[in-house]
Amino acid sequence: MNIETIFSLSFKIFNKTLRSVLPFIVFYNIFIILITYFFSIESIIESSIISLQTIIPLLFIYIIQLLYFILITQFIFNKIKKTKIRFNIIIVIQSLLKIIAVYLLILVPPIIIIMGLISVNSGFFFLLAIIPLLLFITMFSNYLIINNQKNIIESIIGSYQIISNNLNETLILVIINIVFIFFIIIVSAIGGQILPIVLSSILINILNYFISIFNIQFYYLINSKFNSANINE
């Protein structure tokens, strides 16, 4: 896996598409900022009180962010595959529901079981390490749902198969994303000091757009290799 090639391909798509996708990024950022102020999200997060009034605003913002992620991801896949861009609202909603269901399936039951065990014996605290592992083996589920319209179980199994057959490459991708996160934190801290919140937020999401292109390009190449290997077998 040539990382330089992936960066080069990602930069090409980024440069070609930024102008067309920028208005959508700007609109999304302004909308999220307005919703955050309207619902006083910072106060809700700082509050330790859990109620329907605090859960609904957070859930609403999560759904908006997930819709944004789905649309951007599908847009990038279309550009990588050089296919015509068509957004089907039914498929988008189905993708949203499937992605939510995947996270509920892989997180809620294990967390309930582990917390139950911890309440009996604190020695079971180490089992919490299972949660990052579950997130790791399902990290490509979203792409399989959005790009291939796989169902919940198929996306989880498919993600596991791709990762297990490309473990070294996937670990490299994780390390690169950790570096990306540190870079985003630094840019966010600096941008928050010298730029208005709207411009700072737009800048961060432009960087996130490039990271999304890189991740999808990386996934697309290893998935293509995985599919080719299966066909040859």
Describe the structure.
The chain is an all-alpha fold and 233 residues long. The protein has a domain at 88-162. Helix content is 85%, strand content 0%. It has nine helices and no strands. It has helices at 3-38, 41-46, 52-81, 89-120, 130-137, 141-148, 152-165, 167-194, 197-232. Helix 1 packs antiparallel against helix 3, helix 4 (89-120) runs antiparallel to helix 5 (130-137) and helix 6 (141-148) packs across helix 7 (152-165). The chain is globular and about 55 Å long. It starts with a helix and ends with a helix. The model has no long low-confidence stretch (mean pLDDT 88).
Outline of the structure:
The chain has 233 residues and is an all-alpha fold.
Give Rg in angstroms: 19 Å
> What percentage of residues falls in helices of 4 or more residues?
over 70%
Give the amount of beta strand, in percent.
under 5%
SSE-based structural type: mainly alpha
Order of helices and strands: HHHHHHHHH
* Helical run tally: 9
Terminal CA distance reads: 21 Å
Number of strands: 0
Q: Return the average pLDDT rounded to an integer.
A: 88
- Looking at the structure, what is the overall shape? globular
Largest sheet: none
Poorly predicted runs are none
List keywords for this structure.
233 residues, 9 helices, mainly alpha
Helices and strands in order:
Layout: H1 3-38, H2 41-46, H3 52-81, H4 89-120, H5 130-137, H6 141-148, H7 152-165, H8 167-194, H9 197-232
